[in-house]
Amino acid sequence: MLLGTLSYKTKQFFVVLIKLSIVVGAFYFIYKKLTDNEYLDFNDFTRFLSENKSFSVKNITFLIILSVFNWFFEIVKWKTLVDSIKRISFKNALEQTLGSLTASLITPNRIGEYGAKAAYYTKAFRNRIALLNLVGNMMQMTVTVLFGIAGLIFFKLNYNLDINYLKVSRFLFIILLVVVLSFFGAKHKTFNIKGNTLQKIIHFIVYLPKTVLVKGFLLSVIRYAIFSFQFYFLLTIFGVNVHYSNAMIVITSMYLLASIIPSIFIFDVVIKGSVAVYLFSIVGVNELTILCIVTLMWLLNFVIPSVFGSYYVLNFNPPKNTSNT
């Protein structure tokens, strides 16, 4: 590594520079997303909120509590996963979860989260930490897919959903092809993710304690229930008269469709907004309401936590090689 040839003070300077760049970059992208959103003008957004009489202190407090619980269970999940290879405190899990959120905010599909979490550990742990982060994300994605498929089935049964079955068949064929190629790649050890063959990744997951996998999956379900209910609660705040079960059909479908579209994470709000507008228009909810709700969900569950995460990024110190962390 080039940094290995530099003096201690020079290394410290570069570390501080990197930390500042991450925080400034995250805040800049948040600012640009709010002010230069082609789908939702920021003035229209603030005006819509101010004109809504139901947006009381009580409701705001409840929404923030839901966001706190959302990230609380994510932190507990991360602690549960890491504890399988090394015991860490809740405070450590909090720092790593929120710090990595801020660091990964502007990277495609939050890929930067893997490196950010691994940076909290010495070289001996980093490979396993990256794999544990992959496991955690796979758990959350599995929950999204399971609920999303059920939601889409009920959506099709209850609403006139225009589906191009030819395109869907092509999409499923591509997924099947990728799975088959991945299987043969793993068998011949030619497919790898950052030095780990798919076979090694599967082996790592299989040999994780079953209690860790079960607890992690249940925590993912709890998180999903919290932020999906938060979306429904925002619908009721904005005067959308829809039964909870009907709302969940659309919400679960929305999260599934939005999750399978690759994106730069900062534009996740745009993708979810586009998908949500289409799906909720079928059930008669206007575009402005849905775009405002999606933006609020983004602010509550990612922007605000990333602001707190910036504190941990600025106070981050690389682990020493002699340390156990």
Automatic annotation (TrEMBL):
Question: What parts of the sequence cross the membrane?
Answer: 12-31, 55-73, 130-155, 167-186, 288-314
Q: Which domain of life is it from?
A: Bacteria
Q: Hey, what's the signal peptide range on this chain?
A: none
Q: Which Pfam families match?
A: LPG_synthase_TM (PF03706)
Its placement in the membrane is given as: Multi-pass membrane protein
Keywords noted in UniProt: Cell membrane, Membrane, Transmembrane, Transmembrane helix
Q: What protein name does the entry list?
A: Lysylphosphatidylglycerol synthase domain-containing protein
- Organism of provenance: Gaetbulibacter jejuensis
Its taxonomic placement starts with: Bacteria, Pseudomonadati, Bacteroidota, Flavobacteriia, Flavobacteriales
